[in-house]
From TrEMBL:
Domain of life: Bacteria
Record key words, sorted: Cell membrane, Membrane, Transmembrane, Transmembrane helix, Transport
Transmembrane among keywords: yes
Protein name listed in UniProt: MFS transporter
Organism of provenance: Streptomyces gilvifuscus
Predominant location: membrane
Subcellular location: Cell membrane
Residues passing through the membrane, by range: 21-43, 49-72, 84-104, 110-133, 154-174, 180-199, 220-243, 255-276, 283-302, 314-340, 352-370
């Protein structure tokens, strides 16, 4: 097992699964960035589906993809690691192939493609976290998870930028982007499978003496995670909605907030995770809730500012929100990997991904429902819910059997 106390690039790469696996992560993220932000546009312009039908099919695909998580968890607990990661990428290759083969005007082929893309997108985080937990432990594992998130955000950003440049080519360019995404997923799957990382659950069971121990329930952590996940959709959904529809600001401000969020995550995720390693993971997770709640209060305070001041103020407060997001991302999954015994790690991560996927699925609907009711309804509700979640995380006591949650 690798250990890591400072950010050393070579040690970070080893703790992340090795050079080939890191390249696989980068290629996978690049491919995802090429298509995911424009999947709705693909359905509307290439397949000539209505926007509501396309959006509904995408949402159903995301939610239905969560159904596979219990099976993914059991597969991981049988020792599979790189195989599950590669499978999550190959499933998305199938989704892209169906997307390319879908005839115009037919919603079911698009919905099936969205389903396979959703399965791959939901299965990947748990499989990746399990792989990293197999090759690294302690704070090295936390830093490797943070490094993968930074790398993924960078790949997504580059892919989205390339796709934006290509959009001038019309429907042909969108089909080309989809094909490029499929090839990227295929190459990433081959690289991920080639690292041949496999756990030894039988050894873990022999050490613990517990053959049928269930995965830890983590009820409080899973519940608060649903609320914490809202922070991931604030820069993409809540702030553009407020800036454009309520403050009547230029869309440039929304783009600036999104770019700033991406750049901050890429540059700060690893250093912040390393700096915060002096504190327990649970403390950092609770702190992230306080920072997020403070940012929501900041949005509430600056929204009433006069025209010309509100948009820059919202952009400035969004930096605080991103810091909270970085603290959350650097501690939440790391806490799960520390809580769960090795032989039930897959099921624990699968449950955590279920809560994450559910939060990501419901947050757009809740945000868009609260926003028309005014800033107090939106930001006040998010502040209250996040503060209660932070309190629940900070005050929860670990059981004696799982006392290594630090």
């Amino acid at each position: 097992m690798a250990t890591l106390t400072r950010v050393r690039p070579r040690a970070l790469v080893r703790a992340s699964g090795g050079p080939r696996y890191v390249v696989a992560l980068a290629v996978d993220a690049l491919g995802t960035g090429l298509l995911r932000p424009f999947l709705l546009l693909y359905g509307v312009t290439v397949l000539r589906l209505s926007a509501p039908v396309t959006g509904t099919a995408m949402t159903v695909g995301i939610v239905a993809g969560l159904v596979c998580m219990p099976a993914v968890g059991r597969w991981l607990d049988h020792g599979a690691r790189s195989t599950v990661v590669a499978a999550s990428m190959l499933v998305r290759v199938l989704g892209v192939a169906l997307l390319l083969a879908a005839p115009a005007g037919h919603v079911w082929p698009f919905a099936t493609a969205a389903l396979f893309l959703g399965i791959g997108n939901q299965a990947w985080p748990a499989a990746h976290a399990a792989l990293v937990a197999t090759v690294a432990d302690g704070r090295a594992r936390d830093t490797a998870l943070a490094g993968a998130r930074a790398l993924r955000n960078a790949g997504l950003g580059v892919g989205a930028l390339l796709a934006t440049v290509c959009l001038a080519g019309g429907t042909g360019a969108l089909r080309g982007l989809a094909a490029g995404t499929g090839l990227a997923y295929l190459a990433a799957a081959a690289l991920a499978w080639s690292v041949h990382v496999h756990a030894r659950p039988a050894h873990a069971t022999a050490v613990t003496g517990r053959h049928d121990e269930p995965a830890p329930r983590m009820s409080a952590l899973l519940a608060v995670n649903v609320i914490y996940v809202f922070c991931l959709n604030v820069p993409e959904i809540a702030l553009p909605l407020v800036l454009v529809t309520q403050l009547h600001a230029s869309p440039v401000w929304s783009a600036a907030v999104f770019v700033a969020n991406t750049v901050l995550v890429v540059t700060l995720q690893v250093p912040v995770t390393v700096v915060m390693s002096r504190f327990s993971r649970r403390t950092v997770l609770a702190l992230s809730g306080l920072v997020l709640a403070a940012s929501y209060l900041g949005f509430l305070a600056v929204t009433p500012l006069g025209h010309g001041w509100a948009a820059p103020a919202v952009a400035a407060v969004s930096v605080v929100c991103t810091i909270g997001e970085i603290l959350y991302a650097g501690s939440a999954t790391a806490l799960v990997t520390a809580v769960a015994p090795a032989h039930v790690l897959g099921r624990a991560l699968a449950r955590f991904q279920l809560s994450t996927g559910f939060g990501l699925a419901v947050s757009p609907a809740i945000i868009t429902a609260l926003a028309p009711l005014g800033p107090a309804a939106l930001w006040g509700s998010l502040t209250t819910a996040t503060l209660l979640s932070a309190f629940a995380v900070g005050t929860e006591k670990s059981s004696p059997a799982r006392c290594t949650v630090t």
